Amino acid sequence: MKIAVLIKRVPDTELRFSIGGDGKSLDQAGLKYDMSDFDGYAAEVALRLKEAAGAGEVVVIGLGPDGVPEILRKALSMGADRAVHLTAAEVPVDGMSVATALAADLVGQGYDLILFGRQATDTGHGTVGAMTAARLGLPCVTAISQLNISGGTGTARRELEGATETVSFPLPAVLTIDEGIARARIPSLKGIMAAKKKPIETRPAQLGPVRLTVKSLELPPERSGGRIVGEGPDAVPELVRLLREEAKAL
Amino acid sequence: MATMFAFAESRNGALRKGALEAVTAARQAADATGGGEVHALVAGAPGIETVAETLGRHGADLVLVVAHEGFGRYNPEAVAATVAARISAGGYRAAFFAASAEGRDLAPRVAGALGVAMAADLTGFEIGADTVTVRHPVYTGKVVATLELTGTPAVLSLRPGAVPAAETPRTLKVEAMAPVGDPTASRVVTTDLSPRGAAKLDLGEARIIVAGGRGLKAAEHFSLVEDLAGAFGQAAVGATRAVTDDGWRDPADQIGQTGRIVSPDLYVAVGISGAIQHLAGMRTSRVIVAINRDKDAPIFKIADYGIVGDLFEVVPRLTEAVRQAQGQ
Fold this sequence. Notes:
The structure holds two protein chains of two kinds. Chain A has one domain: Rossmann fold (3-Layer(aba) Sandwich), CATH 3.40.50.620. Helices cover 27% and strands 32% of the residues of chain A. Chain A has six helices and 13 strands. Chain A has a nine-stranded mixed beta sheet, with helices on both faces. Chain A has a two-stranded antiparallel sheet with strand order 2-3. In chain A, helix 2 packs across helix 5 and helix 3 crosses helix 4. By secondary structure, chain B is an alpha/beta fold. Chain B has two domains: 182 residues, HUPs (Rossmann fold); 118 residues, Rossmann fold. Classes of the chains: A alpha/beta, B alpha/beta. Strand 13 of chain A pairs parallel with strand 18 of chain B.
């Protein structure tokens, strides 16, 4: 089984953000970058499928600037076989532009599965997977929380509001991976050493036209918060009074 | 004057809340351009046409009903093909979807089929002459982006609750529309749809959410959270990732960066310290209450009201007080 995993390099969201001087990008000072959470789950799913099959190839692909190979290297140290860096000065916020580039690189490569995270933890649109599938004309199932592959078909579970869907699909297919399916493994020392020798191919990303752009970024207004009503159960009557009379939430 | 499209999501023959929100948003968008028409499309098994009147009440001028046995469960490929064909024939300025689980699946398929850009999970929008300006929380809600979309149609999905459903009745026309392609020939097939936890209120639809964290110390203590939710009435129970990871609660109950993003009227955090990932999932709630033993817990920084104390003492007392306040 040949599996592609698309990986996005994103700022670590644990950190405090400030807006850069141009008003439409993050201030880069002090930012750390990592693999988007859901993409880590996708990499884990790919590795487990390969391990279960006892054979196959996992190719990790990242699009973006110079920092991308470092993130791809992390996926290689988890156990992926090789990596592709599609170079671009920046990752457009327009998912269709990105999907155009990814589809151009994925087409005709013989992948049985093409895996994405459900959405990136930075821009959070969650559109690139389904758009790439549309461009490739492949079946697509999004936000899956469980997966079984048997022969040429797959079965996946999707969590909806208040319900669960079971979906079947033929391979090859594009899947986007939700939480709950697998946690990304921590690379072992052996894996980290092996990754240093694994190849990362580099070629320019053939991005599509960009029709969605960032006009400005703002920090949301701080919640005033921080009001301690009291300590222990004796504070309960006052809390209920405030909820009823001041917040009008009861 | 511009015509707008809205996709009306349904499940088991009934409209979802997001359908009414999408139609309401399309109505607002049409009115903002001087009062164009709103065309809503609903797909379902035969019988689905009965929902048309409700869509008309929320601002649709025309409801396109695509009734087919193959649409009894969500049929992403056939619905996307049908919606894309209608949008490309209809000359719409913008197409509105709910950013629900189904809408977030469908909208990018449609945009991909049409080859146009889209913006997802929006909290606001403004239709200009050549551009559509939208607002979208990014970096797990720590930053708000204002984005500009060029090209027509603009495909947009709206965060649940961002545009509350409102009634603006129109003179309604209803048209039957044939599906594009054969819905029974889709490659991707939904073979089962099961409700989770029978009568449980969904986190996205609850007015009040009571959520529990590690401070509860054990799975069985979640009964305290459930009792409090029960006292409030129309309340759902949520959890932190730490708790769902430990198997105390179903992963579907997880609120946070990688789980559900909720924005209820009242959010009560019980034994939750307030990790940034959790805050990303609930910080836009209207009123936040926190109960925690540690007065320095970050949750208190965003809570409107906090009680510092042992939740095992505070929560039962609160449950009792809420019951009394609700006249139970």
